[in-house]
Amino acid sequence: MRSRTHATIAALVVGIALAFGTGAPGCETPVRIPYVQNVQTDSAVIVWKTRDDSTGEVSWGPTTTYGSSAASPRGKRHEVPLTGLLPDTQYFYEVKVDGRVVSGGVPFRTAKTSAQNQFDFIVFGDSGQWTPWMLQIADQLEGQQGVDLIVHTGDVIYPDGDEDKYDLHCFSQYKDFLKSVPMYPCIGNHDDKKRDAEAYLENWSLPLNNLGTERYYSFDWGNVRFISINTEDNYEAGSPQYTFIDNAITTARAAGLDWVIPFFHKPPFSNGRHGDNDTVKRHLVPLFEQHQIKLVFAGHEHNYQRTNEINGVTYIVTGGGGQLLYPVSGGGNIAESKFAWHFVRASVNGTQITFEAINNTGAVIDTHTITK
Q: Which residues of the chain have pLDDT under 70?
């Protein structure tokens, strides 16, 4: 594994070059490495940006001979849906910009059906700052094999969620992962600081199952329904978001899914710098307990925390993606706490989920299993 512990000027230049490759020789329009988004059992979306207006085309199929293709109209932002896919199947895609191949032979896998109840996913948050620790976490992520998807607990981009930070603080770092593995984020307070998270919404292509907005949403993978909650918007009882969350849980239960896993930015329980969030405790915690939710992920605190079961619910705080760490202690509701940069790898096996918190050197700092 290469070392990326020194955020030098040379590394910064390389990072930008990796995010905006020039594609084939002679291609005059630099392009952000295309990445896969919103992967479902029967569809996916390929997204990329160019610095200048350009046309685009995506070809895809079960082999690198492809077989299907779709065009993207002239512009700087390109978002091409791939349709007619089969569940849990490997596909390959190729992207052309102005007729030249900029990315080819890239594999990805469609989502598993509800009958397929074994898969792995990664959770991390508070990553969006160019620091040596962010680079170390990115290295660790690149070394993870057999991961189906990534969940991000918010603050994708510091300090203000600006568009011009996305390449250096996100896409150049996770490019090898994101071109094949979809990331599903939620909005953090830093992502929402300017223009109602405009850059966040511009850079991610997320499920539109919430009256046409991507500010909060849900999606299914295997026997799990994930719910991305926006703690920057109103989620109090009676609000549209609260109703959406309640319905998403209810319909998941009716569909026979084994797990519902909410994730959001501000944790209800914390022994860190921010402490407990009383609004989340007042409105969302009773809802989780009412629906017998077992596992919830959050960020915001720049450390790792795992609660004891609180009325049947275990809360994981994973906010150690690369920003400066916050002090944290154990005791009270907190069963395990670590002052550490880290991510969480979770393995779903039917009605059991085992997860490991892994730090920036690759060491496992916590292991826990939850059974439904």
A: 1-30
